[in-house]
Amino acid sequence: MRQLCSLVLSLLISASCFAKTDEIEFTGYFAVGGGYQHALIGALDQSVNHRLLLNLSADVSYRNFFIESDERRNVLRYGSGIIGYHLWQQQDSSIALIGTGYHQAIGPDLETAFGKQHIAELDGLALRDSDFLLGIRFQHFWDQHYWAAEIGQDIESHYGQQLRFLYSYRQPIRNWDIYYNAGVSFSTAKLVDYYYGVRPVETMVNRPAYRAGAGQQIHFGLSALYPLSPDWLLELSMASNFFSHAYTNSPLSSRDAEFLSLVKFRYVF
Amino acid sequence: MFFKQLLLLCLVCLCTDRAYAAEKSSQSDTIKLTPDTCVALQQGRLCYATIRIKWQTNTAQDLCLHAGQEQLHCWQASREGQLDYEFVGQENVSLQLIGGNGVVAEAVIKVNWVQKNSKVKRHWRLF
User: Fold this and answer.
1) Where are the alpha helices (DSSP H) in chain B?
2) Which residue of A has its CA nearest to B113?
3) Does residue B38 belong to any structural domain of this protein?
4) Each residue's pLDDT tens digit in chain A (269 positions)?
5) Total number of domains constituting chain B
6) Is B17 domain-assigned?
7) Would B122 be classed as within a structural domain?
8) Closest CA in chain A for residue B122
9) In this complex, which of B39, B40, B120 lies closest to A25 when CB atoms are compared?
10) Check: complex ipTM more than 0.90
11) Fold classified for A2-268
């Protein structure tokens, strides 16, 4: 799937090379910062806490194609952009085909920007790979309000489906932009079981087998953006996810909710 | 011959000294802005900044500080002054210190931004 994504990206970039420059919109970002996380699976806290977070992303549009790095409206989508194609768009609404990852990998050995990270608490678990959902999104702006509905089918790891509704409100205060975000998502049993189920071969004394059903999450987030200079932005964000029993009953889960806070300095080029 | 060279040397010294004096004079009539630039997230958006304006002149005189057409503050028989100015604007603004003989010193509050206005019609703002 990653190859397919790279291929689409290459096509987009090569198409851009032949395109008139005034048809291409590009804004690149390099972000450096730190965070504090209370993940649903406690052992994953260390993948964020006490670490330097580096992130390279971009907002690109060429005709109806686009790549978005919109984490301000969904903090828990950290590090995952959206690639897509606008099927229909007006000044304040659009319907687009999208491809994006929602769930990060879970396993005893995870790839990070600084190499492989071993999480001893997850020893014995098979790797649950990050997903890549292809789907459709409707979004609508009205004044400072933003609504989005997304539905997607994973084609990479669990082959489950997810439906998401997101609301965001932007409040400009002097040079700051404050985003208040809320969302709800519904995931099929395939998705929840892939990440939070425990197969018989993975059981241990304190880790019984578990088969998860369909689940829901509720999301609340707050982000703030401030221009430090024409090239640098300060971004502060915090978010919480509250999970249904399908998630919290898993022997892998340590809590009923997760929390993430980030401080990032973002270079814009 | 020697006298001509000496005269030329004196002339050069005199000119240099005058130039230095003129520069010193213009340098001492100054306005210093901290910060001198206001940065907004998007081009065209109102930019907010509290700007400390410090000025000084060679001679004490009655002076008024103007931002564009707006008069901000006046000082009487002063050689220096300070003002915290709450700037709100979308574009560069020229500050002028004006006395009885006209503009004494000038500075510009620059407005800059992170995201320029799109070349093409943008449907979605980035941030």
Assistant:
1) 2-28
2) A230
3) yes
4) 444 444 454 444 444 444 556 688 888 999 999 999 999 999 999 888 888 888 888 889 998 999 988 666 665 555 578 999 999 999 899 999 999 998 989 999 988 767 788 999 999 999 999 999 999 999 999 999 999 999 999 999 999 999 999 999 999 999 999 999 999 999 999 999 999 999 999 999 999 999 999 999 999 999 999 999 999 999 999 999 999 999 999 999 999 999 999 999 999 98
5) 1
6) no
7) no
8) A91
9) B120
10) no
11) Porin (2.40.160)
Find the CATH number of the domain harbouring B38: 2.60.40.10
- For chain B, the helix, strand and coil percentages under 3-state DSSP, each to the nearest 5: 20, 55, 20
Q: Quick check: A138 and A95 in contact, CB under 8 A?
A: yes
A175 touches chain B (CB under 8 A): yes
Two tokens, residue A250: 């898993």
- Shortest distance between the Cα of A8 and any Cα of chain B, in A, equals 22
Q: Which residues of A touch B118 (CB under 8 A)?
A: 25
Residue-number span of the structural domain to which B37 is assigned: 28-115
Chain A nearest CA to B101, separation (Å): 38
CB A223 within 8 A of CB A200: no
- CA-based end-to-end distance of chain A: 28
Q: Which residues pair with B85 in a beta bridge?
A: B51
In the block, which residue shows the tokens 């990998």?
A: A105
Q: What is the distance between the alpha carbons of residues A71 and A101, in angstroms, rounded to a whole number?
A: 13
